[in-house]
Specification:
Blueprint lengths: L1 E9 L2 E8 L8 E4 L3 E8 L7 E4 L25 E7 L5 E7 L9 E7 L14 E9 L4 H11 L8 E4 L16 E4 L4 E8 L5 E6 L4 E6 L2 E8 L2 E3 L4 E7 L6 E9 L11 E8 L20 H9 L19 E12 L14 E6 L2 E3 L7 H7 L6 E2 L24 E3 L1 E5 L4 E8 L8 E5 L4 E8 L18 E2 L1 E4 L3 E8 L4 E7 L2 H6 L2 E6 L20
Parallel strand pairs: 1-4, 3-8, 9-12, 11-19, 20-26, 22-24, 23-25, 25-33
Antiparallel strand pairs: 1-2, 4-6, 5-7, 7-8, 9-10, 12-17, 13-16, 13-18, 14-15, 14-17, 18-19, 20-21, 26-31, 27-30, 27-32, 28-29, 28-31, 32-33
Protein name: Laccase
Family: Belongs to the multicopper oxidase family.
Pfam family, one: Cu-oxidase_2
């Protein structure tokens, strides 16, 4: 993979963007469960870069996970790094993307994992398989957009378009001739692999006059269920079967924002691709548009999430921890910090925007990655003791939260987990500044979403409603706006694992923390040694 600049035309103008191998989106990688990947990344761009293999478990290979300053120092311009890892016990749709600044706006691609040879999908074999990568496009250089916002502490400018496989579609200027098109035949059932690669936006997706049957999320099989709309947070994937029952015609697949934050600016445009029946004779026929939910339709987003269930079959069993060793309660949300003396800041009332977990706003180290510091015993890079509970208990989702609670503390704290401990995390959204749906992604793990709800989590009543039989398993959970989600996993993968909001604007503001999982008792439960070409800080 060569990270390089390339000139492309979008929305009536020419733009220099960062790509992989000159492709936008980048190349799709096709692998099978059990395969070992060796990917040499050469950075010919002008920015630091890393590649994250989103959703890959990285068992004992944390050095290949990719988030900058967490598991590696960035690949400097002109340098390279070889990612080596094995895909173990996973099949379905994942993806890869840059994990440095806002580079992933254009540096991303699909990672499709097929079943092992001799095994099959737990659903009928589809006629076609169609990866659909949803993206977010800025006419300005995305790195300049985030750098300008970071300087002043303001919110960055919203995007100018959404894209489907790199193209905005018919509803944007100068875009119709390049709209992504898929030719289909009457009666065929196709597997559509949806990936939300947008930087900062949850997305609703629908296909005009066609139902979708969800069969997997985040490369984990689900019980099939029919729907007319899918909601994906950034980072999430959803595999749907679509049976094409019409005799002719053109039908839009359309994607637009689910914007849950009251008063938060968002891109209100709609991206489209076209499913075109082969017997459609008139090229001038206008495609039909699906009925998409309204931008703030939390009810539809919640209904979709609540319908997901793990397949929980003989070949795809469920192992939900019934008891937990670590019971963690993490508040997640926005905040404001005072402008440093002598500076002019662009946030509300001259402040800077911030975000935090348990009132700690995460700061990336710069002298070493956390994994190197942990592995080699380097002092001063991070500190232990990330709190198991918020420093103050309050009405987290109240309408008017005291301003004294709005300012988080900056830190680089980690939570240490014993190998093989069963972990429960309650992720509690807050209404500080504004409540919002947060797609929380945990690196190195899949987790069961055993419960969720609106308002404040009630430790006395809510666990009785947990689903411990067939909860959905994911690597990214959408914590409901002014609500909570409960996740469980077993800490069976040693290393340093970032947990963060996948709205990139929020991770930059500090909505992140790191789990350090200690080695187990033997070689197969111990982190591998670092590769010789690991980039230096």
């Amino acid at each position: 993979m060569q990270i390089q600049s390339k000139s492309v035309r979008r929305l009536c103008g020419s733009h220099n963007i960062i790509t992989v191998n000159g492709e936008f989106p980048g190349p799709t990688l096709h692998v099978s469960n059990g395969d070992t990947l060796v990917v040499k990344v050469i950075n010919k761009a002008q920015y630091n870069a890393t590649i994250h293999w989103h959703g890959v478990r990285q068992m004992r290979t944390g050095w290949a996970d990719g988030p900058e300053y967490i598991t590696q120092c960035p690949i400097r311009p002109g340098k390279g790094y070889t990612y080596r890892f094995t895909v173990t016990g996973q099949e379905g749709t994942l993806w890869w993307h840059a994990h440095s600044s806002w580079l992933r706006a254009t540096v991303y691609g699909a990672l499709i994992i097929y079943p092992k040879e001799g095994t099959v999908y737990p659903f009928p074999k589809p006629t076609q398989e169609i990866p659909i990568l949803l993206g977010e496009w800025w006419n300005a250089n995305p790195i300049d957009v985030i750098n300008a916002a970071t300087r002043t502490g303001a919110a960055p400018n919203t995007s100018d378009a959404f894209t489907i496989n790199g193209q905005p579609g018919d509803l944007y200027q100068c875009s119709t001739s390049d709209t992504f098109r898929i030719s289909v035949k009457t009666g065929e059932t196709n597997l559509v692999r949806l990936i939300n690669g947008a930087l900062n936006t949850d997305l609703f997706v629908s296909i005009a006059h066609h139902k979708m049957t969800v069969v997997a999320v985040d490369a984990l099989y689900t019980k099939p269920h029919k729907t007319t709309v899918v909601m994906l947070g950034p980072g999430q994937t959803t595999d749907v079967l679509v049976t094409f029952t019409k005799t002719a015609g053109k039908f839009y697949l359309a994607a637009r924002a689910y914007a849950s934050g009251q008063g938060v600016p968002f891109d209100n445009t709609t991206a489209t691709a076209i499913f075109e029946y082969t017997k459609t004779s008139l090229s001038s026929i206008t495609p039909e548009m699906p009925k998409l939910p309204f931008y703030n339709d939390t009810k539809t987003a919640t209904k979709f999430a609540n319908a997901l269930r793990s397949l929980a079959s003989g070949e795809h069993p469920v192992f939900v921890p019934r008891t937990v060793d670590e019971n963690l309660f993490y508040t997640i949300g926005l905040g404001l910090i005072n402008c440093p003396p002598g500076q002019s800041c662009g946030g509300p009332n001259g402040t800077r925007f911030a975000a935090s977990m348990n009132n700690h706003s995460f700061v990336l180290p710069s002298s070493s990655s956390i994994l190197q510091a942990h592995h080699l015993g380097i002092k001063g890079v991070f500190s232990k003791g990330f709190p198991d509970n918020p420093p103050l208990q309050f009405d987290y989702t109240a309408q008017n939260i005291s301003k004294s609670l709005w300012s988080p503390v900056k830190s680089t704290k980690v939570k240490v987990l014993r190998y093989n401990s069963a972990v429960q995390v309650i992720l509690q959204g807050t209404n500080i500044f504004t409540g919002e749906s947060h797609p929380i992604h945990l690196h190195g793990y899949d987790f069961y979403i055993v419960g969720s709800g609106f308002g404040n989590y009630n430790a006395a009543k809510d666990p009785a409603k947990f689903n411990l039989e067939d909860p959905p398993m994911r690597n990214t959970v959408n914590v409901p706006v002014n609500g909570w989600a409960a996740i469980r996993f077993v800490a069976d993968n040693p290393g340093t694992w970032l947990m963060h909001c996948h709205l990139d604007v929020h991770i930059g503001w500090g909505l992140a923390m790191v789990f350090v999982v200690n080695n187990g008792p033997d070689l197969v439960s111990t982190l591998e040694q670092p590769p010789s070409d690991l980039p230096k800080c």
